[in-house]
Design brief:
Chain lengths: 427, 452
C-alpha cells in the first residue's frame, strides 16, 4: 500500500486546478493523481475538435510529465479507482493496489447516458467522452456514409457539425422539441437549427426513438412517427451521468452526483468532490444542481484544493451558473445564467419576480440577443453573432452588479456599457 | 517571494478618447489600422465623459488559462504575458467567457480570438498614447528588486491590522540596509516591538530607544562617534509626528541647523496613536481625536496642521522630501537620495501615514487612503535639495481630485460640515500655491544670486 497526503482521482480541469491550488499553498505535501485514462491529462471539451481534426490529438494535453515532476506529484495513469474505504482512509485501484490518503478529491467526471431503447445495446453505437472515443469515431467515419446522432445537446450538435464537414450525411434525432434546449430558447434554437440544415444536416426534433435494429455494419433507427432511418454510424449523445459507481458502500452521500457543501466537502470527512461529479449549490436558488461545465469544474477544483490544503484565503463557492460558448459553422453563440426557454424562466423560485427581458431577434441577419434582468440586476445573457463579451456578462451576473443608473444604456448598448462597468472595477 | 511582472496601466482621467492606441495596436499586429484588429479598446461613458478600457490584464491567476481545454493559453513565467498558441487553439471561445475585462475577444474578420502580448515588451499602444493614459508600469520590476533585499525587521511584531508604519519601517530598512544604527523614540514604531520585547530586539540592526525629546541629538552624537573612529555607518531615525513636530522639535531643529549627518524620517499618522489617539501639531484641521472631540460645540481640531516639511526645508537641510506608501517607487527614489545626502548633512523625509485604528477606516483601505491623500493634493509629493535650493514636485499637482474624495474615506472626518470642507479645500489650494512659489524661486537668496 502506498501513502500520500493528497489524493486526486481524475486528471481533467477539476483535478488539475485542485492540484495547482494545493501547490500554491503547500509546496511540500505529497500529491498523487490517479486517472483511468492511459494518456496525459486532457479536457473532454476538446474532443469534438479532435473528431473534426482541428486539434492534433498529440498536442491536446494540459500537463506533461515534467510538470508533475517539478511539482512533486506522483501521476498514475491507466488506473481506475474501484472502491473507497473512508474508515481506512484508502482507495482501491483496479489493479488491486491500495493508496492511503489524508485528503481525497473525487474528480472523476461523468460518462455518457445510454438510454434504454430496445435494440440499442446490440447496435454498434459510439459515444464521445474520451480521447479514444474521438479517435475511434474519426477512424470509422468515411465520406459519403450516413450518420445518426441521438441527442441535440452541445456534444450531439458539435459531432453533427464535425461529421457533416467530414462529408457524411448526418441526421440529428432528438426527443426534445428544439436543439440545444439546455442553453437556448426556441427562437435562438431555430437560428442554430437553420444553420445546420443549410449545411446539409437533417434535424428531427420532437422525435422519440422506438427501437434500433442492427445489421452487419449498419443500423436503423425507428421513430415514433413511423420513420425509419438507416446509418453506418450511430452516436449516442443524450447527456451524461456522474461517474460514481466506485463510491458504493463508502457512505459518501449522493443524489444525481456527489453532494457537496460550499467548500466542496462531501458528507464524509477528508473527502472532497469537484467538477462534473459534484452536485453543489446553485447560484440562483437553494437547489443542489449538476452543472457539468468546464469553468465550473476549474472553480470547484480550486476551492476544493484550497480547502484541502487549509489555505485561509479560500472563499466559499458562489453556486453554479449554467454557461457555455458555442461556435458552429463560423457562427458564434453563448448563453449564461437564466436565459433558456420560457419554461425555465417560469421555474424560477419564489422571490425572483419583476423579471425584464430585452430581446433582439433577427433571423435575416442571423443575429439574436437576449438579456434577462431582475430589477437592476442581470440574471442571464445569450447571444448569437453579436459583439457582447460573454466574460463581461458573466461577471455582471456573478458579482450581482447593480446596473441601476446605467440599465437603459446597458440594454441598448450592452457591449460598451458592460466593458465600461468592468473597466471601472479594475485599476 | 513570488515574481511579479510589468503591466500596462490605464489612467482613465488622462484618456481623451483619441483612439490612437487602437490604431497603433491594429497596425503593429496586422499592418492595417482597422480597429477590428486591435487588442485594446476604449469605451466612453456618454454621461460623464469618463473612459474605460478593455485589454488583457495578464492576470496572475488567469481563468482563461485555467479554462482553456486545448492548452492554447500559457502564462509565460519570465514575462508574465499570457501567450496564445494559434496552432493549439480550437476556437471554442471559452476564454472569452473566462475574462472579466474583454481582454481576449473574437475577431470577426480573422474568425479567431486575439489578445494583447505586450508587443514582446515594448507595447505600441503605450508609445502612441500622447496624453499618457496608458503607462507601461515597471512597479513589478521594483517589487522584484525590493523583494530581494533583506527584511531587517523580524516577523510577528505587534502592530495593528493594516498598519502603515509597519509597512514603512520594513521597506525603509530594506533600502537603507544593515549598516545602520536605528533610533525609534516612544511612539508606534517603538511600541509595536522594534526596540524589543523580553530582552530581544525586533530588528537585525542595532536599535536604541531615545527619549521623545532627544532623538536627533542622540543620533547625531552616535554619528559623530562613528566618524571619529573612522566608520561610515548610516544613522536613521524612525519617529512619529509627536516625537518630531512637538516635543522632539528642538533637538531636531538644532541637528538640522548644525547639518548633522543623519536620516530623520517622520512617520506622520497625524496624532499620538499608540497612547490613544490624541491630537498633535500635525493633526489636520477638522480632525476628530480624543482631545479634539466632536460634540455640540467642538467639531474636531480648530487649527491647521504645522507644515513640518516646509519648516525643515527652511532649515536648508541637505535633502527634504514628502512621501506616501501609495507611491512606493517615489519613496524608494527619495530614500536613495536621502542616503546619499546624509553623507554630507541632514536628510529629512516626511511620510504620510494613514492609521486605520486611529483614523477610523478599514485596514483594507490603507493604500487607497494613502493614494487619495496625494491625488487630492492634501499631501503633495515633492523634494528639496540644498544643491539646487529649489523645491521640485515629484508628482504633478495639476488637476487634483476634490478633497471630499479623500475625506469621505475616513471616519475621523465624517462629522465635517460644508464650511469645514470648504476650509480644508481652500487651505489645500493655498498650501499648493505656497509650494509652487518655492518651485519657481530659489529658497535662499544667496543661491539665487549665484544662479543670476
Amino acid at each position: 500500500m502506498s501513502q500520500t497526503k493528497y489524493l486526486i482521482i481524475g486528471s481533467s480541469h477539476a483535478g488539475l486546478s485542485a492540484l495547482d491550488a494545493i501547490r500554491m499553498y503547500d509546496q511540500e505535501g505529497p500529491i498523487t493523481i490517479v486517472t483511468r485514462e492511459n494518456s496525459l491529462p486532457y479536457s473532454p471539451t476538446v474532443l469534438p475538435y479532435v473528431l473534426s481534426g482541428q486539434a492534433n490529438p498529440d498536442r491536446v494535453f494540459l500537463r506533461d510529465l515534467a510538470y508533475f515532476k517539478e511539482n512533486g506529484v506522483k501521476f498514475i495513469n491507466g488506473s481506475a479507482v474501484v472502491g473507497v474505504k473512508p474508515a481506512a482512509n484508502s482507495v482501491t485501484l483496479d489493479s488491486g493496489d491500495e493508496i492511503q490518503y489524508e485528503k481525497l478529491l473525487l474528480a472523476t467526471g461523468s460518462a455518457p447516458k445510454v438510454p434504454d431503447i430496445p435494440g440499442l445495446k446490440d447496435a454498434p453505437w459510439h459515444v464521445l467522452r474520451t480521447l479514444e472515443d474521438a479517435l475511434r469515431i474519426r477512424a470509422n467515419a468515411q465520406e459519403g456514409q450516413a450518420a445518426i446522432i441521438l441527442g441535440a445537446g452541445l456534444i450531439g450538435m458539435h459531432a453533427a457539425q464535425d461529421l457533416a464537414k467530414a462529408g457524411l450525411q448526418v441526421t440529428v434525432v432528438a426527443t426534445t422539441p428544439q436543439v440545444m434546449g439546455q442553453y437556448f430558447d426556441d427562437e435562438a434554437a431555430s437560428l442554430i437549427e437553420r444553420v445546420f440544415v443549410d449545411n446539409g444536416v437533417k434535424v428531427l426534433t420532437g422525435s422519440p426513438v422506438t427501437h434500433v435494429t442492427s445489421s452487419d455494419n449498419a443500423c436503423a433507427v425507428s421513430l415514433e412517427n413511423g420513420l425509419d432511418i438507416s446509418a453506418d454510424l450511430l452516436l449516442v449523445a443524450k447527456g451524461v451521468n456522474a461517474c460514481m459507481d466506485y463510491l458504493d458502500g463508502s457512505d459518501v452521500a449522493t443524489g444525481d452526483g456527489v453532494l457537496v457543501d460550499d467548500k466542496m466537502r462531501t458528507s464524509v470527512e477528508n473527502i472532497w468532490a469537484a467538477g462534473d461529479i459534484a452536485q453543489g449549490s446553485s447560484f440562483f436558488d437553494s437547489a443542489k444542481i449538476m452543472n457539468g461545465i468546464l469553468p465550473d469544474a476549474s472553480e470547484q477544483g480550486r476551492i476544493a484544493g484550497m480547502d484541502m490544503a487549509e489555505d485561509p484565503a479560500v472563499q466559499p463557492y458562489m453556486g453554479g451558473i449554467s454557461m457555455n460558448t458555442y461556435n458552429f459553422f463560423n457562427n458564434r453563440a453563448f448563453a449564461i445564467g437564466m436565459c433558456g426557454t420560457s419554461g425555465k424562466l417560469a421555474c424560477l423560485p419564489c422571490g425572483l419576480d419583476n423579471l425584464g427581458i430585452d430581446k433582439m431577434f433577427s433571423p435575416s441577419s442571423m443575429r439574436y440577443q437576449k438579456l434577462v434582468f431582475q430589477r437592476d440586476n442581470l440574471l442571464g445573457a445569450a447571444s448569437i453573432n453579436t459583439d457582447i463579451d460573454p466574460g463581461v456578462m458573466l461577471q455582471i451576473i456573478r458579482r450581482r452588479i447593480d446596473l441601476g443608473g446605467v440599465k437603459e444604456r446597458f440594454a441598448s448598448n450592452p457591449m460598451d456599457t458592460g466593458r465600461l462597468v468592468m473597466s471601472s472595477t479594475w485599476r | 517571494m513570488g515574481k511579479s511582472y510589468k503591466t500596462i496601466a490605464f489612467h482613465p482621467e488622462k484618456c481623451n478618447g483619441c483612439n490612437d492606441c487602437i490604431e497603433a495596436c491594429a497596425r503593429i499586429k496586422t499592418e492595417m489600422n482597422a480597429p477590428v484588429h486591435s487588442r485594446v479598446n476604449v469605451v466612453k461613458d456618454p454621461d460623464d465623459a469618463v473612459f474605460g478600457i478593455s485589454l488583457c490584464r495578464q492576470c496572475g491567476d488567469p481563468e482563461c488559462v485555467m479554462n482553456c481545454p486545448a492548452g492554447a493559453l500559457i502564462k509565460d513565467e519570465n514575462t508574465g504575458v499570457i501567450q496564445w498558441d494559434e496552432t493549439k487553439c480550437v476556437g471554442c471561445l471559452i476564454c472569452t467567457l473566462s475574462c472579466p475585462y474583454a481582454g481576449i475577444t473574437y475577431n470577426t474578420e480573422t474568425q479567431e480570438v486575439m489578445k494583447c502580448d505586450q508587443c514582446g515588451g515594448d507595447p505600441a499602444c503605450v508609445k502612441a498614447c500622447k496624453p499618457g493614459a496608458l503607462e507601461f508600469n515597471n512597479a513589478a520590476e521594483l517589487f522584484n528588486a525590493w523583494g530581494n533585499l533583506e527584511d531587517l525587521f523580524v516577523p510577528g511584531i505587534s502592530a495593528c491590522l493594516g498598519c502603515n508604519s509597519e509597512l514603512l519601517m520594513r521597506h525603509t530598512l530594506r533600502r537603507v540596509g544593515p549598516n545602520t544604527v536605528l533610533a525609534t523614540p516612544p511612539g508606534c514604531i517603538a511600541g509595536i516591538g522594534s526596540v524589543g520585547v523580553n530582552g530581544f530586539t525586533a530588528t537585525k540592526t542595532p536599535v536604541f530607544h531615545p527619549l521623545l525629546t532627544n532623538t536627533a541629538s542622540m543620533l547625531a552624537g552616535a554619528r559623530r562617534y562613528y566618524n571619529r573612529i573612522g566608520r561610515d555607518v548610516t544613522m536613521l531615525a524612525l519617529a512619529g509626528d509627536g516625537g518630531t513636530a512637538d516635543v522632539g522639535f528642538q533637538s531636531l531643529s538644532g541637528a538640522a541647523e548644525r547639518g548633522e549627518q543623519i536620516i530623520y524620517i517622520c512617520i506622520d499618522n497625524e496624532g499620538y496613536m499608540n497612547t490613544g489617539v490624541q491630537r498633535s501639531s500635525t493633526t489636520p484641521y477638522g480632525s476628530w481625536t480624543t482631545t479634539t472631540p466632536v460634540g455640540s460645540v467642538l467639531r474636531g481640531k480648530t487649527q491647521d496642521a504645522k507644515p513640518m516639511p516646509i519648516l525643515m526645508m527652511m532649515h536648508n537641510c541637505e535633502y527634504v522630501a514628502t512621501a506616501s506608501t501609495a507611491f512606493m517607487d517615489d519613496y524608494y527614489e527619495k530614500l536613495a537620495k536621502a542616503i546619499a545626502a546624509a553623507k554630507k548633512g541632514m536628510a529629512y523625509l516626511h511620510v504620510f501615514s494613514p492609521c486605520p485604528t486611529g483614523w477610523r477606516f478599514s485596514p483594507s483601505e490603507l493604500i487607497e487612503v494613502s493614494r487619495k491623500g496625494v491625488e487630492t493634493n492634501i499631501v503633495p509629493l515633492w523634494e528639496y535639495s540644498k544643491d539646487t535650493a529649489r523645491l521640485q514636485f515629484t508628482r504633478s499637482v495639476d488637476n487634483p481630485l476634490p478633497v471630499q474624495d479623500y475625506l469621505k474615506l475616513i471616519g475621523k472626518f465624517k462629522h465635517l460640515d460644508a464650511a469645514q470642507i470648504d476650509h480644508i479645500q481652500k487651505s489645500v489650494k493655498r498650501g499648493v500655491e505656497r509650494l509652487e512659489k518655492f518651485a519657481r524661486v530659489d529658497a535662499f537668496e544667496n543661491n539665487q544670486e549665484e544662479a543670476a
